[in-house]
Structure formats: C-alpha cells, structure tokens
Specification:
Layout lengths: L4 H9 L3 E3 L2 E2 L12 E6 L2 E7 L9 H5 L2 E3 L23 H12 L9
C-alpha cells in the first residue's frame, strides 16, 4: 500500500492500521493467512484479506496475488452546487436568479429548467 517499510511503520504507529478490527500500535504485529487488514490511506479506506505469504520480497505484481481487496467502491465525486458543466455557456437570467436564491439560503429551492 505504501512504497517503503518506513512509511508502513509510520502508518501503524499513527493508528491508521487495524488488524482483524483491532487498531495496532506497532508495526511488528504478526500477520497470518486469513487475517483482515484495514488501512486508512489518502482519504480512502482499504480492506485487505491476506491469502498467503511470500518466501522472498518481490515486486508489486507478485504481492497483489497474496491478498484479496475487499475495499468498498470509491464514492463518485459530485460537483458542488452552483457549478455549471463545462461548455454549458453563460447562465441565463433564470439561472442567475436561481443561483442567487441558492447562495442567499432563503429556503426556496431553485427552479428546475
């Protein structure tokens, strides 16, 4: 999940890693096949189930076959209210009034086109 062992240790020491639902406080915890590891990283939560261990350290592709990714799908980003789609042109007078009502927060919903 991270590039170096030092970064992995910092994640564990910072409380961003859980092993079978229990927060770990040190990077030296033993992990077995079947354990579930939860990592909070880059505003996202990764849930991984360990399938096996490697005899030697290898590249990322060989490491990916050693776990199942059970992470929830990422939430699609929604544009903030009042942002127009690219290429929509200038807002009409009706659009500007609806945006003014929205920004003012007077409780009325803007009219739908």
């Amino acid at each position: 999940m991270v590039r170096t062992r030092t970064d992995a240790a910092k994640l564990a020491d910072g409380g961003h890693v859980r092993l079978n639902g229990t927060r770990i406080d040190a990077a030296s915890r033993p992990v077995r096949s079947g354990d579930v590891i939860t990592v909070a990283l880059d505003r996202r939560v990764r849930v991984l189930k360990v399938k096996g261990m490697a005899d030697r350290r290898g590249d990322a592709d060989s490491a990916r076959i050693l776990y199942d990714d059970l992470s929830p799908p990422p939430v699609p980003a929604q544009p903030p209210a009042g942002i127009r789609e690219a290429g929509a042109g200038r807002p009409t007078k009706r659009d500007r009034r609806a945006l003014d009502r929205l920004m003012r927060g007077d409780g009325e919903r803007p009219e739908e086109p």
